[in-house]
């Protein structure tokens, strides 16, 4: 019997795993943004000394994982599992990083929802008693995403105001069955939602229904309401999607506007950094969580947060065949103490 | 969300998106396109006048100018300048022949890492390819129509 499941989509962890350490590596543009001081490594060269963007992204994942493990004075041999994914075809950034790290590896694809997807699964595997140390990681790279999903970097095209800027960044969190927190306490797994948005330049709108659905489902399953949280933060809806999410949640009966924001809005200065509607990419919620949010939790400035990474499950092929864009959002509640 | 609410919201959602959608400033975009596109044409005109004054015949001067402009478009793409100008100019940098050069050189640069055959060779025309296919096809169709009009008009 599923004794830990509450409601229809949520798990209440009986032995909440502690997040021992996190690590973040970002590109220079992210480093210049308002959250730059919270990132561990800021690259001056987006190629990271490699020959290609893909190799650079994989190295970012690998080094972020190593850094998180080092900070905890552990060795990759001590880690039981690694859950990781990214945006590239066949998730090569993650699996090629895992090739070097030699940690037992589960590869994930949840588009930009991968940070909370990997945190969810890592928490469950620890709570279930299958592991003591687990890595949850993800990455994205502006240049590798552009060439796969859009145009070559030097192509002279214009981006519409709803478009978003893929974050160059990798984040890794080391979870453990013991430790002093912050703890992951609830996991709400999202459904794939599609309200018919077809514009691949407006992914915030495509993902907003999934984010709203998961937030509402989390409240209903747990009995919490917005006042129980210091901050509710989605992954990469950007400015456009963020406004839509607030409106949808309001229609569902909850007003989150006071404590709600979006990682894609926070990581860049939208008026100065020419990113249009904000940031996107797996790396967006990864570095905002592993950098800014984790450090605020550690310092006690946040007591309980709800992180909802959001993914647009499209591919260039599905868009060209006229399909609308399905969205997904997974939520994890993280608390300073339990 | 509940099924009933979900159904209701999915119907309302299109309006919500349209209402929230920030629009590009058409007037600003048009002015940038006009000014920068116009400057590119001025450069073309400069070279045309120069070649004419050097004694290049009128019917051939177009080839000379196109060659120079394609070179300039490719060169500025290689230096990483063209896309930064195009960010503001939009159609002003896409429509002139320099934009055509940019659309071929940028994938050639981008996909060099996949090798010269399957990278540069195969992907060079991913943006310009459709323009070539339909440009050449329509020129053939127009040519056939022109032939018949001439034939029957005799």
From TrEMBL, chain A:
GO terms for molecular function: acyltransferase activity. This is Stage V sporulation protein AD. It comes from Caloramator quimbayensis.
From TrEMBL, chain B:
The chain crosses the membrane at residues 31-55, 61-81, 88-105, 125-149. Pfam families: SpoVAC_SpoVAEB (PF03862). Keywords: Membrane, Transmembrane, Transmembrane helix. It comes from the Bacteria. NCBIfam families: spore_V_AC (TIGR02838). This is Stage V sporulation protein AC.
